[in-house]
Every structure is written in structure tokens, then in C-alpha cells.
Amino acid sequence: MTIPLIVLALLAAVAGFLGIPEAFAKNSHWLAHFLEPVFAGSGAVVAEHAAEESTSQEWMLMGISVAVAVIGVVAAVGKFSKKPDLAEPSGFGKVLANKWYVDEIYNAVIVRPLNAIGKFFSNVFEKWVIDWLVNGVGRLVQYGSRQLRLLQSGQVGGYVLLMVIGILALFLVELFVKK
To answer: Which domain holds residue 143?
Structure first.
């Protein structure tokens, strides 16, 4: 983890020198000079625009950003360097301490309804629908096989009778069904 951070820090330091503000050195904005041929026809040349403005705006923006950073560092050192705050947080601190209550919201919105649906499917749907269908198909096959077994008596006369009944049924279907 350290090596990528070092590489990023070095690249950030080098990239900072590409666009040094005009307040520090005149005509030193390397990136503006590099991109000048690209923006020459549009009239949006960065070097000319920077030369027209006064450097007071740059100094003001640099001062504000440094002041904000210093205030943040002082506030962090004042809050966290002495002793840890062992008191129970209140207000917005309680929201932050409880991670914006994301776990509680996720539990209430996602986990509990899914558990209820799963319990319903396990206790009601599986027992009364799925099991009934599976067991019903098994019973139906068992009943049908018992009935068909009665046809397999081994008597040739019975087989001929069933064959004649089947031929008559096919003849009646062909006779009465119009095409």
C-alpha cells in the first residue's frame, strides 16, 4: 500500500509545477504554453487571460485555501490529540457514531421483509403447494399404474377386445370430426 501512495505523491508534486500561478513567476505556466496551439483559434488562450488578470485574486484564493487547511488541522489536533471523548455522543454525533443508521435501515427495509417472505414460502407455500403437487403426482402415477396393471391379465381375448374397442374409437373420431 505504501509504494502506490509514494508514486502518487511524487506525481502530484511534479504536476503541481506544471501550472505554477502567475503570482510566483511570470510566464511560467508550462501547461498553458503547451496547450496554446490547441486553443489558438478559439481566443481562449490561458496565458493571455492569466496575464490580463491581476495576481491579487490568486493570492486571495491561495490564502483562503491555506487558512481553511490550517483551521482544519488545528480543530483536529484540538479534538483528537488530548484524550478520547468517552461520553456518549448526542445529536449529529450520535448519527455519525451509528454510521448514519445504515445497518438499522438495511435490516428494517431488506433483511426483515426477506426473512418474512422466506418463512412464508418455507412454512406455507412449500408445505401446502409444492409438497402437495409432488406427492399428488406420485399418488397419481401410483394409482394409474395400478389401474393399467389390471389390463395386463395375460388373456389374449381381453387384448383382442381392447384392440377392437380402440379401432372403433378411431373410426368414430374419423367419422364425426369434420376436417
So the answer is: 100-176
